[in-house]
Design a protein that fits this description.
The chain is an alpha/beta fold and 249 residues long. The protein has 10 helices and 7 strands. It has one domain: Rossmann fold. The termini are far apart. The N terminus is likely disordered.
Length: 249
């Protein structure tokens, strides 16, 4: 059976509900093979990058953490290992099918009972003000409908001194690295995605979402405008992957 491709938002004005629906459908459809694609397309580096992000957050036992756009829960489980036995991780995502897989993983992990799945969007977080010690996110910010509002909501739910740590894809700054990155996304990643899922369009979206995303300087500025201070960036893989960290004063 052929799975129909949802209509993609055609312009920035079509973002909002249209983009949220598109992203939810995309991740629901690729959820069974999402982890396989990640491992193959990154040559297994994606988990190493997640561990770097968790380390940057400086998590400690007893902390309450939000994994924003948790997907299948890999980052949530790495964070839960650090905050157990008295802390918890809220694994939040818009895709119910991705969260189902996250729940299954949590049920198998020794510290998985510290992970609580939440179906919600990044722009309207269902948490009280200053309720959390850290907000983590991996490969999500390109998919939100309103980046500024997402940062504002993350800032709102953090305690003073709380950290936000974001792991995300960007276009490398070096022309040679950018050429290699573009070639890989148009050939290798697309082929791996098709072989893993039988679909091409989600991985075409992946490439386009990276190419059209805000550059690092604008990303940092958006974090600072939302109230975060001491914002730092750590480039990985020649800048194709970045870790950003900010603190709520």
């Amino acid at each position: 059976m052929t799975i129909p491709k949802p209509s993609s938002p055609s312009s920035p004005s079509a973002a909002g509900k249209d983009k949220a629906s598109f992203v939810r459908t995309l991740f629901d459809q690729i959820s069974p093979r999402y982890d396989l694609f990640n491992r193959l397309a990154s040559f297994g580096l994606d988990q190493r990058w997640r561990r770097r992000a968790v380390a940057a957050a400086g998590l400690k036992k007893g902390m309450n953490v939000l994994d924003l756009g948790a997907g299948t829960g890999d980052l949530s489980l790495l964070a839960a290992q650090q905050v157990a036995p008295t802390g918890f991780v809220a694994a939040l995502d818009v895709s119910p099918k991705m969260l189902q897989i996250a729940q299954q993983k949590a049920a198998r992990a020794p510290w998985g009972y510290h992970v609580r799945t939440v179906e919600a969007c990044a722009e309207e977080l269902p948490f009280q003000d200053a309720a959390l010690d850290a907000v983590l996110s991996a490969f999500v910010m390109r998919n939100v409908t309103d980046l500024a509002k997402t940062f504002q909501e993350s800032h709102r739910v953090l305690k003073n001194g709380g950290k936000i740590v974001i792991l995300e894809f960007f276009r490398p700054q070096s022309p040679l690295m950018r050429f290699g990155h573009n070639f890989w996304m148009m050939t290798g990643a697309l082929t791996i995605g098709w072989l893993a899922t039988g679909l091409r369009w989600p991985f075409s979206y992946l490439r386009k979402s990276i190419a059209s995303f805000v550059p690092p300087k604008e990303f940092i500025a958006a974090l600072e405008q939302s109230g975060f201070s001491q914002v730092t960036q750590t480039p990985l893989l020649g800048g194709a992957v970045m870790i950003y960290r900010g603190i709520k004063p």
